[in-house]
Design goal:
This protein has two helices and nine strands. It is of the alpha+beta class and 163 residues long. The chain has one domain: Sandwich (Immunoglobulin-like), CATH 2.60.40. 25% of the residues are buried.
């Protein structure tokens, strides 16, 4: 066994450097939506954008599930955005309150080729954990998602209401 202290610290130094690298990598932020090359909306589909702005004075740090016609579509992370490509039709968007707050919902109608921008915000509730759902005009929604962290997108196996 080597007695040189330099040889004994070497494996420990590697382990510490590896841990530091992994911690740093896990803290990396997702890119903003504006910096991502987004695919076009698939033919005969529409795109639903879900986003949640940063609210600096908010005490509610929960990240509730967003459901589209009962199917979990994603998580409403503060400062984040994601999209869903779905067939045209009527959809119910709901925030899952987890039994601790109201579960608001909003119906949206989607036409092939259209994009709908849905903002998840903080609302009033008995425990301060409530959320709101607002369908925003295209220019407002587009500006909001461009500065949001991009959490991905794609298709969802939720059928329109009544399909």
């Amino acid at each position: 066994m080597p007695t040189n202290p330099r040889h004994r610290r070497h494996p420990l130094w590697r382990a510490a450097a590896s841990i530091l690298f992994l911690v740093t990598a896990s803290c990396a932020q997702p890119p903003t939506t504006a910096s991502v090359a987004l695919p076009p909306i698939p033919p005969q589909q529409g795109r639903v954008w879900i986003y949640r702005d940063i609210e600096p004075h908010a005490t509610n740090q929960t990240t509730p599930y967003v459901r589209l016609n009962g199917t979990i579509a994603g998580v409403a992370d503060e400062g984040g955005a994601f999209y869903l490509d779905v067939p045209p039709g009527r959809y119910q968007i709901m925030i899952e309150g987890g039994g601790m707050s109201p579960s608001p919902s909003r119906d949206v109608a989607l036409v092939a080729g259209d994009q709908v921008y849905v903002e998840i915000g903080l609302g009033e509730s008995w425990n301060g954990q409530g959320f709101t759902i607002a369908v925003e005009p295209s220019e407002v929604g587009r500006a909001a998602i461009e500065r949001s962290k991009f959490y991905g997108g794609g298709g969802l196996s939720a059928n329109p209401v009544g399909a």
